[in-house]
Design goal:
This protein has a six-stranded mixed beta sheet with strand order 5-4-3-2-1-6, with helices on one face. The protein is built from three helices and six strands. The model has no long low-confidence stretch (mean pLDDT 94). It is an alpha+beta fold.
Length: 150
């Protein structure tokens, strides 16, 4: 039997969640894809979180943002969020590098303060996102042992 496609694997990862979280993951993913159409999606089904990273390359270290979901909901993680201007003080977290915003719905991504953070993150990306071209969906890792998704 052939290995499932990345899209089929992604669908299986999302299906592990309760229906409301599944809908949230799908809608937030669609909203981020619309904003970052040339970014590669790097997928991790890890122990603590299900993560989709958005990167100009296939290298995880080049990722700009990621969606991180657990059974309680989803967040938009700014990989270099500590360096972003945050005049509205909406970024959460206290690490040296990463900050995040909880996403109540995909509409949160359109809120002016969140949209400004996303634009700033894209502007500081190194390497930058390509202006044209197609993006790939890449399954990077799947943990055998995971926290419950429901």
């Amino acid at each position: 039997m052939p290995e499932p496609t990345p899209a089929a694997q992604l669908a299986g990862f999302v299906a592990k969640f309760d229906p409301p979280v599944q809908r949230l993951i799908k809608s937030c993913r669609a909203a981020v894809r619309k904003r970052l159409p040339t970014a590669h999606e790097l997928v991790y089904d890890n122990y603590n979180f299900f993560v989709i990273g958005y990167s100009p390359t296939e290298r995880p270290s080049d990722a700009i943002v990621s969606l991180a979901a657990n059974r309680q909901g989803i967040g938009l993680c700014f990989i270099y969020g500590a360096a972003l201007p945050d005049p509205h003080k909406i970024l959460l977290g206290s690490g040296k590098q990463t900050r995040f915003v909880r996403l109540a719905s995909a509409r949160t991504l359109s809120e002016p303060a969140v949209a400004a953070l996303l634009r700033a993150a894209v502007a500081q990306a190194d390497p930058p996102l390509r202006r044209t071209g197609s993006a790939r969906l890449i399954i990077k890792s799947v943990s055998k042992k995971q926290r419950p998704r429901r």
